[in-house]
Amino acid sequence: MAIDSHIHLYPPSVSADPLAWAVTQNEPYWLSCVKPSHGKSLQAWKSPSELLQDMDDAGVEKVVILSWYWENHDSCLHTLNWQTEWLAKSPHRFICFAPFNAKGGNAALELLKNAFQRGCKGIGELNPPAQGYAYEDPVLAQALELAAAYRAPVNFHVTDPTTHDYPGKIDTPYASLLNLANEHPNTSFIFSHLGGCEPLRNREPPPNNVVFDTSACPLLYKTPVYREFCDKVGVDKILFGSDYPLRVFPKDKRSPNFILPLAELQNGDLSPAEIEAITLQNAKRLFHLS
Fold this sequence. Notes:
Low-confidence stretches: none
CATH superfamily: Metal-dependent hydrolases
CATH class: Alpha Beta
InterPro entries: ACMSD, Amidohydro-rel, Metal_Hydrolase
CATH topology: TIM Barrel
GO molecular function: carboxy-lyase activity; hydrolase activity
Pfam family, one: Amidohydro_2
Organism: Pelagicoccus enzymogenes
Mean pLDDT: 96
Protein name: Amidohydrolase family protein
């Protein structure tokens, strides 16, 4: 069995007409990612029932449904309502992370408290440069302390500055992310996309309260980087994440699913014990699962 620590999900009201949703909610950045003005979109859409079937086909026990890094607080409110509905129907298969935008101020902090009371187990995915606030925002700092109080990990999007350009690519300074982790030592951080592989270029080891997920790596890197990352950072700091239903294998007509990213990880020169740690045990420990 496996746990996927990084997926996204949208209701039919959004997937049926992403343009209409983006215009109504004033979410141009999200639209540029899922429906770029130039080139083919890599975004696919799946219903909760299709998600559950894909999980069963690949032996995925649970998934972490991340919210998007919305530009507006109102979109966060909508997302929490979706998550509550999904959790009510599949509480043993889904883990939801609460949406957040620091521009919402006190209302954003109250939303987080409400989200935790309604079953959310974390915060994110966050991307301050895309959402319109600074890593130093005091409301974000309060949110991170709130996460520590609830033992709720926080997922941050991290861009690799060395990879090719793609729709929605935006700079996420790794130094700013490390500062947050160091300033909030009691908060657990997940840096997505293997932290943009920045730990491989950084001489200092990441803080103890930071782990990394593997989401979108097959799309970003021509050859697997898991062996090198394990050797540099440590297998105990890596979570399996697929970024489902993003087409991370765009040339494969079977994508998106969980089978292909799991297979790449399993063929990435890792031992069975390392694979089990990445795909299951590390997530169970982080999310306090028995």
